[in-house]
Amino acid sequence: MYVSYEFYTETFGALIPEKDFPRVEAEAEAAISYLTYVNGDIFAKEDSRVKLAVCAAAEVVYNGKQSNGASGSAGVKSESNDGYSVTYVTEAQDGQTAEAALRKKIAEAVRLYLLPTGWLSRKVGRCHVCAGYDHSLQ
Could you give the CA distance from residue 17 to residue 13 in angstroms, rounded to a whole number? Predict the structure, then answer.
């Protein structure tokens, strides 16, 4: 684990229970690795901005798991009385899977912490945002 539960609770928040933290933290790391793989191993060296990004992504993953598991917690989008048809409000766009919506929310959450570092750049090698900053030595 890149981020300890102690760091999470002392620095970021306390939404995620300790028993669930290792699972959602691992999913958050995997999502961040996917977003930054072009630029090297983001977890090779300790960086507080990366840790904060992991915490933010972990909370998104946790909230996503909670909302998928809770039945009837979503608001009603439309309702038909004649044939009893109810449509619930979702965060996903029409036609978008819940997993795709979760990936998008994770990317939005980590962007705040990782965009200034250059880790989210899709350029191979050094990015223009952080000229002279070698991500492999992060």
Answer: 10
